[in-house]
Amino acid sequence: MSCDTAIVRIDRPARESFNFVSAARNLSLWSFGTWSVDIDETGLIQGRSIKDGSSIFVRIVPYPEQLLIDFMIGNEADSLTPRIYIRILPGSAMGGHDDECALMMTALRADGMDDQRWADLKAAHAFEVSLLKSAIETGYDHRNV
């Protein structure tokens, strides 16, 4: 098992960034794996990959006090495992100011994931944190174009 972490500094307070990332409705603004989403009344998300149209289920589990978010992921709604984690750090934790923060996205490589899929996932996450930064800082919503 291995993991990969992508990090970005965001020019917004940690709480604002946390609220944005933990909101299921925002997932389709930045996640390639869930570009098109349906969200049921329990918060379970069914998304479609922008790459190949495959379906995936996601449940976002936020921990507001710790500014942590677990993304429970699976191919079946009743078989979700924690595979993506986002941590938001206030700017002061890095020697900066609290009107900024750092966002770290960590992905776990699942058993059976081939090298190409893992490389694609790491590349996607590196770009997704950039999309998160832009969406949080500018409020731009490509779904309204």
What does this structure look like?
The chain contains three helices and seven strands; from the N terminus they run βααββββββα. It is globular and about 40 Å long. Helix content is 26%, strand content 34%. The protein has a seven-stranded antiparallel beta sheet. It has one domain: START domain (Alpha-D-Glucose-1,6-Bisphosphate, Chain A, domain 4, 2-Layer Sandwich). It is an alpha+beta fold and 145 residues long.
Mean pLDDT: 94
User: Which percent band covers the strand fraction?
Assistant: 25-35%
Q: Can you give the helix content as a percent range?
A: 25-40%
Give me the CATH architecture, please: 2-Layer Sandwich
CA(first)-CA(last) distance: 40 Å
* Strand segment tally: 7
Poorly predicted parts? none
The largest beta-sheet arranges its strands as: 1-7-6-5-4-3-2
| Morphology | globular
Largest sheet: 7 strands, antiparallel
Structural classification: alpha+beta
Specify the CATH homologous superfamily: START domain
Q: Give the number of helices.
A: 3
Number of domains: 1
Would you state the CATH class?
A: Alpha Beta
Whole-angstrom Rg: 15 Å
In N-to-C order, the SSE pattern is EHHEEEEEEH
Query: Per CATH, what is the topology?
Result: Alpha-D-Glucose-1,6-Bisphosphate, Chain A, domain 4
Short description:
This protein has 145 residues and is of the alpha+beta class. The protein has a single domain, classed as 2-Layer Sandwich (Alpha-D-Glucose-1,6-Bisphosphate, Chain A, domain 4), CATH 3.30.530.
